[in-house]
Design goal:
Length: about 240
């Protein structure tokens, strides 16, 4: 999936590059480049089209186009299959074919624009926030930053600490959701609490309005600790799921 919109060129630029390539291949042909607002585009509605160029990996898409055309009362398109060129310099983690996805992969970690100078921001400590879903690599990046000297703050761990008896969110959460969320030893039963908010946006917001500000405050306290320990000139990484 193309989940890095910052690394995808604007449509106008991509269309211009495509036109330049096509006209270089065969300038005698007339090319009509149109944006695709859906997966099928005009191929399922244009009665004048006769052929659709596909590759081995997009043939199923071409067959889906023909099914849609038949549903719309249009004749099927001839599917002309071409072979994709291979990238001789692709790495082990990149696609074998020449692909824009590989280009975006190679751009990861590079500056897209110079750092913005904001005089209102303090020069230290420098804080980096790591966010993402499960398996997105937060822990690996945080570990690497730690090896480089960063003071690592794991917001997931703070998210657990905030609920413990005596923790900043303990009493407000118990007051909001009742004693039935408590274990016999007085600790909050996260599963019982989760069942109360799962699928209930109002209750979930009620919980996050209590917990998230407390976690943010704990993060700020850890940042101040890092600065006091002399780590402020390095990096502080806060790792948390979205």
């Amino acid at each position: 999936d193309k989940v890095l919109p910052e690394l995808i060129e604007p449509y106008e630029l991509r269309a211009a590059k495509l036109r330049e390539f096509l006209e270089d291949v065969k300038p005698s042909l007339c090319y009509d480049i149109v944006p695709l607002a859906d997966p099928f585009g005009p191929a399922v509605t244009d009665p004048d089209l006769q052929c659709l160029v596909v590759s081995e990996e997009t043939r199923r898409g071409g067959e889906a186009v023909n099914r849609k055309r038949l549903e719309n009362g249009l004749p099927e398109l001839a599917l002309y299959e071409i072979q994709l060129m291979k990238d001789p310099e692709h790495s082990q983690n990149e696609e074998e074919k020449i692909s824009s996805s590989s280009l975006r992969q190679r751009l990861l970690g590079t500056l897209l624009q110079p750092p913005r100078q904001d005089p209102a921001l303090p020069l230290r400590p420098y804080v980096i926030g790591l966010t993402g879903g499960t398996g997105s690599g937060k822990s690996s990046i945080a570990k690497l930053l730690g090896l480089l000297g960063a003071f690592v703050i794991d917001a997931d761990k703070l998210g657990h600490a905030v609920y413990v008896p005596g923790g900043p969110a303990y009493e407000p959460v118990v007051a909001a959701f009742g004693a039935e969320i408590l274990n016999k030893d007085g600790t909050i039963n996260r599963k019982v609490l989760g069942a109360k908010v799962f699928g209930n946006q109002e209750q979930l917001k009620r919980l996050t309005d209590i917990v998230w500000p407390k976690i943010a405050q704990m993060v700020k306290e850890r940042v101040r600790e890092a600065d006091a320990q002399g780590n402020g000139s390095g990096c502080v990484a806060a790792s948390a799921q979205q």
